[in-house]
Amino acid sequence: MRKRELEMFFGPQHLGMVGNLSITLQVEGDRILKAETNPGYLHRGFEKLMEYRSWIQNFPMVCRINVVEPDSMEMVYAMAVEKLAKIEVPERAHYIRSIYLELARVGSHLFGLWAYANMLGFDTVAQWAMYHRDLILDLFEELTGARVYHIYLWPGGVRRDFPEGFKDKIVNTLHSIGGCVPDYDSTFFNNRLFYERAKGIGRLTCEEAKELGAVGQVLRATGAKLDIRKIEPYAAYQDIDFAVPVREDGDTFSRIWVIRDEMIESVHMIFKLLDKMPQGEVYNKVPNPFKWKIPKGEAYVRVESSRGELGLYMVSNGGDKPYRAHFRTPSYTHGLVILEKLLKGASIADVGNIMISLYVVAPEIDR
Amino acid sequence: MDKLKQELGLFFKDTQMDIPEADRLLVSVKKEQIISILKFLKGKGYDHLVLISCVDWFKEKEFELVYILTCYPEKGHIILKTRISRENAEFKTVIPIFKNAEPYERELHELFGINFAGHPRLTPLFLEREYKIPPFRKDFDTRKYVEEVFGPIPPVEETE
Hints:
The complex is a heterodimer.
Chain A: E1 5-10, E2 22-28, E3 31-38, H1 46-50, H2 59-62, H3 70-85, H4 91-120, H5 123-144, E4 153-154, E5 157-158, H6 166-178, H7 181-189, H8 192-198, H9 206-211, H10 216-220, H11 228-231, H12 252-276, E6 297-305, E7 308-316, E8 324-328, H13 330-343, H14 351-357, H15 362-366
Chain B: H1 2-11, E1 16-21, E2 24-29, H2 34-43, E3 48-57, E4 62-70, E5 77-85, E6 90-92, H3 101-112, E7 115-117, H4 142-150
Parallel strand pairs in B: 2-5, 6-7
Antiparallel strand pairs in B: 1-2, 3-4, 4-5
């Protein structure tokens, strides 16, 4: 039979697509000859809008850039403001921030696991992951009053201390999630179906990954033991000892296993942080936010979000608003460069498989 | 960082360098030097291009292009800056050196109107409509644009 080339639109309204992203595929039979990512379905121009709002007013803005993990967005913004205005953060606030970010990482990875398992047809595992993420959102609700967009960090610390008995609640919740790890393993991670479906798909070598600018678990799945929490410790990460999970193969299977190992490591980290947490103040006073002017300067800060290096380049011209802010988001290179490369030669059934394992979050690309 | 600063000073003339704090190097250069300095820094291990950004210095009628580089296993970063004219803004692409520069340059072309010579696809990335002034320039007024396109913003009525 004669084969012919077709143009196929994949997403944003497609069952295999999570998020508002569309990919134009050139296919011949089942093989993809060329893929082009078309972002822009969620472009809200946040970086421009930030130039019209004062330093404090931008907090509700930045967390909305990423729906899955808004907390690391708050963290980079708070860190950039602290760097520009030279504000110190108390020791206890550093610990609270670290615990907050690790909880967010577990929640975000569970969300990613939901998307991935759902796409592969493991509906039960997907529902478990969503339920466990909800338990973490409950913790956030008690701590901050909001479930998704918390707006909890503040230049110079955090907005309020842990409520009474909150420490025990974190421990109980994490124990109940951790108790389900054997169930997750036997139904999903050690399942032959998952192995067959993911092994060898979307393979990336370490050199390629570095050349294309991969970060986070995409890079760690290729064998590079690189984590910004180790390289350039922020918050309280220099005080505790933790492992960086690594896999060698660089395929979809490895990426999902790195996510699993990172979740478990994060839970251990939270326990260590809770044990070491000092007493004291949780924020340093900042000047009156309505009249707050930050001296001229520029800053680049970066954190390890659940998807990799998240950075913010911010310029102040001595005014009460940022002069320019530019987010460096991990999904940007993953979604626009690496995804296009990996899809070349893959089959149509693997588009969702590769995309979700790269953890491409569309709002983060568009900003 | 100090060593790198000395080496850069030896190889490239007319560069302004500053280390405002540990692990952070600011380099301002002329626009002709960017390509050779990026190649030099890549050879020195700074092979991870983090970001290409642009700042619109409206009063000085210049765009400032910002290249941020890191060397992954090490702490710190380099901020490489150059200024180009705001009128008919044009620059060379750096895709031959850093492959992941492609979407960043595409974004700057769309949002600031900078033309990158040699870029394989300067097609629209995010935006839906045509704009007279590229929207991230400082002279683009978002409120005025909204009123022109979507009609005036209705006043908020106070209710008892």
